[in-house]
Every structure is written in structure tokens, then in C-alpha cells.
Amino acid sequence: MSKNVIEAAKPEDYKDIFNLFLEIHDTLVECNPKKFKKLEGEERENCFPKEIFDYCLDPNSHRFIDVYKIDGKIVGFVDYLVLEDSPYPGINTWKGIFIGNIAIKKEYRRQGIGTELIHYIRDVKCRENNVTEIGLEMEAKNINALNFYKKLGMVESRIKFSMSL
User: Are 17 and 48 in contact (CB under 8 A)?
Assistant: First the structure.
């Protein structure tokens, strides 16, 4: 029987998380090749700088990474920001979690791990941080992600437009 655990990332998790960031980027290239380019060489090695990872490990930051492990092996992660209070007078004060990335190794997808990570954010991290909303942005052409988030009960709350020139 395998042991599954979700926990805060540790310094020794960097390489595994880095490799998952590469998988995320490759998926983005597939979904939107006009916006995202295939990374080669040095660009590929710098897609997720160690300084950003270290910032996510700092308990005084607002950005965090939690990993999903099966028998001690990282198979996924979620990185997120805890945000609060709008600086604009016309917007109600709120506190939310913004999911930056969620990644599952290809061979572990469609096994409920992504759902577990979202439920973990909702049930654990939102409660710990007294949060009332979860948000994220995604590529409109990533139909698998779109269907996944809708299946979890998320709804479109804002629409972002862009125009290629």
C-alpha cells in the first residue's frame, strides 16, 4: 500500500519541482505556441530560478509550494500566493489564495492527485489563512485544465482578453 502525503516543499525538493515546471512549460507550448516557445539550453535551465524557489520556502513570504508525495517521491505540486486587502477604495476587502501553478507528473495524471491538491488548498490552507476565495488563471486553450477546474466547482469569474499583433 502506498503512502501519499501533501507537505510544504523542502530545500532538497528543488530539482523535482524544477522538472515539473519544465513539464508545465511544455504543456503551455502545446496549448499556445504563439505565446510560449520551446525552451532550449540555458533558457530551459533558467525557467524556474532557485531564488524564486527559496523565496517560496521563506515562511515570511506570501508565496508557497506544497508537494504531493507517493512513498516519498514527489509526483506533483501546487504553488500559491496568500493575498489580502485590496488597495483600491472601490473594491471590498477580501482575502484569497491565488494558485500560480499546479503540476502532476504525466504518468500520475488522471488519478485524482490534482483534485486532492485543490481540496487540500480549499480545506487546509484556506482554513489556516482565513481565506474566503481561491483564484487562478489558465490558458484558454488548455481544455483539460478548463474541464478539471469546472469539475471541481470553480466558475469563471473574470475574463482576460489579449490580441496578437
Answer: yes
- Taking the C-alpha atoms of residue 102 and residue 128, their distance in angstroms, rounded to an integer, is 20
In the predicted structure, residue 86 carries a pLDDT above the cut 70: no
- The DSSP symbol for 67 reads E
DSSP-H helix ranges across 2-142: 14-31, 41-45, 50-57, 113-120, 126-128
- Rounded Cα gap, residues 50 and 56, in angstroms: 10
CB 82 within 8 A of CB 75: no
Asked whether the CA dihedral 114, 29, 101, 12 is positive or negative, the reply is positive
Amino acid at 135: G
Of the candidates 37, 24, 9, the residue with the CA atom closest to the CA atom of residue 138: 24
Task: Report residue 48 as a C-alpha cell.
Answer: 524556474
Say what the pTM is: 0.83
20 C-beta neighbours (distance < 10 Å), count:
23
How would you classify the pairing of strands 133-136 and 95-104? parallel
Mean of the per-residue pLDDT values for the chain? 87
Amino acid at 112: G
d(CA 131, CA 85): 11
**Residue recorded with cell 500520475:** 108
